[in-house]
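SEVERITY: medium
COMPONENT: batch folding queue
REPORTER: lab tech (J.R.)

DESCRIPTION
The queue accepted two submissions in a row. Attaching both inputs and their returned structure tokens so the on-call engineer can compare them side by side.

ATTACHMENT 1
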Amino acid sequence: MFADKTKIHQELKTRFRNESDLTLSMMTRAISDLDISNPLALDVMYEDVIFFTGDWPETQGWGSSDTAAVIRSVKETLISNGYLKDSVMSAPADVANRLALANVDGTTKFQTGHTETFIRNQWASAWTDTKGILRWCVNDAIPFDDMLADFRTLGLIDEDVQLGSNLLRELENDDFWAKNNIKTILINQGAE
């Protein structure tokens, strides 16, 4: 079901110890998210990760959409190089396996910290628009990445909806902050 990753993590720490924290973090995240255990996959993963993180300015924030882009790229590269099967993270059996681990006693929490029942109730308050973006019915906002991940774990949305929704939410947030710095917000509230 889930592979022992001791060797790949040891190899990562040894061979890539001089890389940036961001690069190491993204490689560790890919190992975890894609359930990679073969240390031979590290070189292939590294090429993809460093493409995104190699010249990333330290002053610029790294968001969930950046992480999603890295994971998607690493996944596609690992599939094309034979280190990963195409069905990883999308097969119903995989969803069932993750569910069994996530909720063994019926009380274990998901990424959001909520129970399966709560998450399913939240699902009833969401809809997918014509572009495949998941939104809340009450305000058309896109759910945060932890809720999207829980919807995905339960098999309620697929990878494309999860990643596309995360990406658009990040872009909308960036656009908001580009237009609304703190001074503008304070002026609009009459508190300068």
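ATTACHMENT 2
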Amino acid sequence: MNLSLHHHPSFSVIAVEGDLYGAAVEDVLDLFSLVPVEQSLIVDLSGVGILESTACAAVRDELRGRTEVASLAVVVDSNDVSLSLVLHDVDRVAPLVRRREDAVTLVTGVLAGRT
């Protein structure tokens, strides 16, 4: 599994490549802790092949804690991973999009409209 965190002026991106299950979930949660709660966030799961239910729940719970103060988006291009996220209500916490560019437009567009 490969993890990365990129900070931009108005948002951060956590990107995951590989299968996400077991102990790897803790590594992803560690990255969440490096992003301030009020920072808008994109979670890019487009490189994930297998997403275990505990990973879905962990991502959902981390995002849920940010919904009131930050713009959020999740990038996913696998139908199987997308279905897992929907079954665990991640789509009710943050929009699911197919491309990172769409996520950037979404979170920066929301930021531009805030006062």
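NOTES FROM REPORTER
The longest strand covers residues 40-51.
No errors were logged for either attachment.
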